[in-house]
Amino acid sequence: MKGIVYARVSTKRAEQETSLERQVADLQSLAEEQGCDVVAVITEQQSGFELNREGLYRLLDAIRTHDADTVLVQDDTRLGRGEAKLAVIHQLHRLGCRIMSRQTGGELELEAGESTILHIMAKVEELQRKWMSQKISWGMQRAIREKGYNPALNLKNQGKGGRDKKEVPVEQIVALKEKNLTFEEIAATMQGFGYDVSRATVHRRYREWAKAGDAETEKTDT
User: What is the count of structural domains for the chain?
Assistant: First the structure.
């Protein structure tokens, strides 16, 4: 596990710094107990009811870019208070992040009511993603019927065997990603149109496209 220690106090009073130092020390000890490699320590002095926190954004960015897969906190209130706490926990769960708590000595445990709310939030988002994916699928099927377009014809290596690089319409991957579909959902959509691609392949093609775009921008600037 690669973890980030996240410590927070509610005010910027000087005496609160001692609490931050104590939290960090406790969480580094927890990381050692759990066999977690600490890659970053984030501390901040800000209200837990506030979502606009620089440290919180740094934490989410690190999890999103896979620099870490675990966050270590003193207890659930360090992530936030009230609705803000549930929003943060929900986002971390969406990113596949584990939450370790010193209070429990392991995985964070929530109250039954809070767990129910998070479950409902996850189901609502799942419905929204599936709805968007289905709308895109219907649109592509309509294009096939009305314009005779068949994306499967773009597969150039069918029947040739071997491990040639898979031909995938990157422009469609980019278009689906811009509609906020996950790589898993994009892969499922592409599979529905005859492309034998995995989530990893879709993610790799998108990264290659983004990297090529960055290189072209640098060339233009110079």
Answer: 2
Active site residues: 10
Long-range contacts of residues 13-17, Cβ cutoff 8 Å, at least 24 apart: 13/45, 16/45, 17/45
Among 78, 110, 142, the domain-final residue is 110
Domain that holds residue 182: 121-221
Six-digit token string for 91: 């986002």
Question: What count of Cα atoms within 13 Å lies in the side-chain half-sphere of residue 197?
Answer: 30
| CA–CA gap between residue 102 and residue 27 (Å, rounded) | 7
Is the same domain home to 157 and 208?
yes
User: Taking CA 212 as the corner, what is the angle to CA 211 and CA 213, rounded to the nearest 5 degrees?
Assistant: 90
pLDDT digits (tens, 9 = 90+) for 44-60: 999 999 989 999 999 99
Degrees to nearest 5, angle at CA 68 with 63 and 70: 90
DSSP 59-116: HHHHHHTTS-SEEEESSGGGT-SHHHHHHHHHHHHHTT-EEEETTTTEE----HHHHH
Prediction pTM value:
0.58
